[in-house]
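ugh ok so i messed up the first submission bc i forgot one of the chains. this is the corrected input, ALL of the components this time, i swear. 829 residues overall. if the numbers dont match what u have on ur side tell me asap before i send this to the collaborators (the ones from the other lab, u know who)
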Amino acid sequence: MHRPGARWVIPGATLLAVVGSVLWILQAGGYDTARALHALWDGAFGSTYSLVSATLVRATPLLFVGLAVGLAFRAGVLNIGAEGQFLAGATVAVAAGFAVGGWPRLIALPLARLAGAAAGAGWAGLAAWLRRRFGVLEVISTLMLNFIAAYGVSFAVRGPLQEPTHVYPQTAELSAAVRLPLLFDGHRLHLGYVLAVLLAVALWWFLTRTAAGFRVRAVGAGASAARSAGGIDAARTAAWVFVASGALAGLGGASEVTGVTYALYEGISPGYGYSAIAVALLGRLHPVAIIGTSLLFGALEAGAAAMQRDANVPSVLAAVVEALVVLGVLALDHARRGRTD
Amino acid sequence: MELCGGPDGFVSDIVLALEAVDKRFGGTTALTKASLTVRRGTLHAVLGENGAGKTTLMRIAFGMQRPDAGVIRLDGRAVRLASSADAMARGLGMVHQHFTLVPAMTAAENIALGGRGMFSRRTVDARVASLAERAGLPVDPAARVSTLGVGAQQRVEILKALARNARILILDEPTAVLTPSEIEELFTWLRRFVAGGGTTVLITHKLTEALTLADDITVLRRGRDVLSAPAAGLTVNRLVDAVTGDSDGVDTPGLRVTRTPGQIVARLEAAEVRDARGVVRVQPVTVALRAGEIVGVAGVEGSGASDLLRLLAGRLAPSHGIAHLPRHVGFAPEDRHRDALIEEFTLTENFALRDASQRMGVMPWKTLRAQAERVMHAHDVRAPTPDVAASTLSGGNQQKFVLGRELDDRPLLVVADNPVRGLDIRASAHVLRELRETAAAGSAVVIHSSDLDDVLPLADRMLVMFAGRLSEVAVTRDAVARAMIGAA
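and heres the new structure output, hopefully the right one now
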């Protein structure tokens, strides 16, 4: 069981099981399976446009938020509030973007994005504080904070941040100074993706090579031994990781508004924060592997939209797949532990 | 309730009897022809050291374990107890040392747990309230157990037994976790319960408790009953001899090396430990440890010995007083799986744990791997490479690795809590030899072991904890065993 690569047996087996389930669902639902799969592939990878402007654009927020969830889980912090932290980041980044929109891009853009990251950190910090001060389980608090953030966005786009005509429930558009540069002419992919990939590699390096990263892993893998044998303040380490995780998710929200939508509106996240749990778990919480799984899920969501258009298969199938992945990884993990213990 | 008569209608005076009970767990013998005879309407104390078989015998009486041989009689009639539910149905109740309550439920819900039929909160609350009233055990039925103090939780445990019509109540070390006033209340209640026709079996290691409270006393030693008599005719000395077995003189001073004690390396000054409730676990203690000496620590569970150890290891800050300790104290905790090793980490990573809190910047993995490898060779840790997960090692090799890591930077003070628990003879001998060599090389070494035979041959001094109080006694089995049961 300690062969290198053995840790990828579970994700592999999960994927196989999920693909099998999807085929069965398509069959049982009476859909034209071949056509549906063709549409799925076409929508995700069929053309340069679908790959670059659909799949990768959707993979970007998933990567940011997947890294956020993966980092938190690594330290034993069950942050399932990446959705709320993403929304907090998006909202504050837009507000900041309006405030500094007239400034030079080199200053304004990083400022707006930093504001988003700080907002995500603060939103997570609230849950971290509740946990340390009152022992509130973060699974509960972060989930609740997700709803508050979603309604906060609704309020913002109907109130203080609504566009000047006060007709649509959304903000005005950000000025060019706070928009991320596009990577290719005519395509929607923006610099945020490159940043996310670099962040993933940096996070991997942090976790495996630095002393602080080692402490994070130790707290997650054995908090009691980390305290007793390592003298590590486990609660404090976990709190910092919680906040950093929120910052990553907030940065994801900031990237979405400065890179893709240029405005804030309700439903700006189709549940990225929840999909990210599947992304992180399938990637075994390994930052570099999360690059791959976020791409896979980005493709799935892009392809699911095409599948609905061309083969009439409801796009919620993507959500079904995500749920199956989470269940599959957890169940197989449990089965394997049960066998080896 | 009809009192169960004997075979010929005669109501036996002996309410509970265990006759010639044998019990083995794997290779170890817990009980050999152990007997216990409890008279109706009496309080019967069962005394003995750690591992003497007290708890095993009572678990057999309560149907939790099946004896390998021997007979259990209730009211004179031989019975086979299939389970603790079976025992409860026959009028036995047991209050375990570690309570078996659901913290999130109310007192009444805990008492109703395991009952049959419909659950109505109002009826149950009313019934529990009236039961508590009748029994004289004040408990708020609606209070959540997690909000109750230990004394109140124990009352809930007793009510749980009484609600099932227990007429024989077995209590396992009930005073270990109580405050003095709570102990007094419990004793008053127990006397009343017995006076009202109930029967109580009290498992304890405290001699005075047994002498002042019990009608009859049975002493177990090494799985046998060695004394059984009315308390009135017994003295402390007689009990001590029975508990410790004065003839088992296993003092083997041959291993000790006479050394001149070196300078003081660690010192506690009026250091006191209180738990979260504010109950004193370690009374203010002042003690100095010198370079080159091996200090043995003894004490039964709940005596505060493990708190003293964590205090000396710097893993627990005193609530009052001062602990002067070296910068790094080598510490081999009792539960190495939980507190010393991260099982999924490699040996290199586990080695790196030691300085993890102070390290900055990048981890020097190459150096650390070499150091871990050196520790493996120096301490005979059998593993192919330092890159394997700690979980793949045997218990003995894990312990050798932990010790190797903790001794590697030559700490001035080493604290080992039950360092040979669960190890085979070879690994035990290896670990104890290493600790001896560490002291010879100039460190102060503190060893606590539940088995006195492990620590007595090594120790230059013996510190004994009893009910949170520290005393220093002569390094003999007799003196230590007496101090452990408060008879010094």
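quick check: The mean pLDDT of chain A is 91. that seems consistent at least. The interface with chain B takes residues 2, 209-211, 213-215, 217-218, 221-222, 224-233 of chain A (CB under 8 Å).
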